[in-house]
């Protein structure tokens, strides 16, 4: 699994194939997917964390079913731009996934993504705490993926 920057990732993926975004939480993995044109990210599923191999099998099943060509994994950076233990855990997750099946991966700085999503769910949709709990991680995954898709599209227009 090559870890690529977004520009190289876009060039390495076949056209017309969607990407998958992951928000790796402590108890769950939020999953989002893009459309085949890689314009819009949509929340897909919430995977409960258990054993790594079970999580990986679920992700591979989702990837195969949608013909996913790459993963965008949220990287929880510290506010000063350094990587802490959670970011290192995300990198380890990607390495472990690669041991089972090589997949093209890029990381996306997810600082404040969960906070932004929670604010949106409260302010715009007026969701209760209970309703937010079931939606926030997969919506955060869509937020992460959309940020990466927008960056790739912005870079393509400036080249």
From TrEMBL:
Signal peptide: none annotated. Keywords: Cytoplasm, Hydrolase, Nuclease, Ribosome biogenesis. GO terms for molecular function: hydrolase activity, acting on ester bonds; nuclease activity. The keyword Nucleotide-binding does not apply. It is an enzyme of class 3 (hydrolase). It comes from the Bacteria. Its EC number is 3.1.-.-. InterPro entries: RNaseH-like_sf, YqgF, YqgF/RNaseH-like_dom, YqgF/RNaseH-like_dom_sf. Pfam families: RuvX (PF03652). It is found in: Cytoplasm. One of its GO terms (biological process) is rRNA 5'-end processing. The keyword Translocase does not apply. Residues 17-117 form the YqgF/RNase H-like domain. Belongs to the YqgF HJR family. Could be a nuclease involved in processing of the 5'-end of pre-16S rRNA. PANTHER family: POLYNUCLEOTIDYL TRANSFERASE, RIBONUCLEASE H-LIKE SUPERFAMILY PROTEIN. This is Putative pre-16S rRNA nuclease. It comes from Brevundimonas subvibrioides.
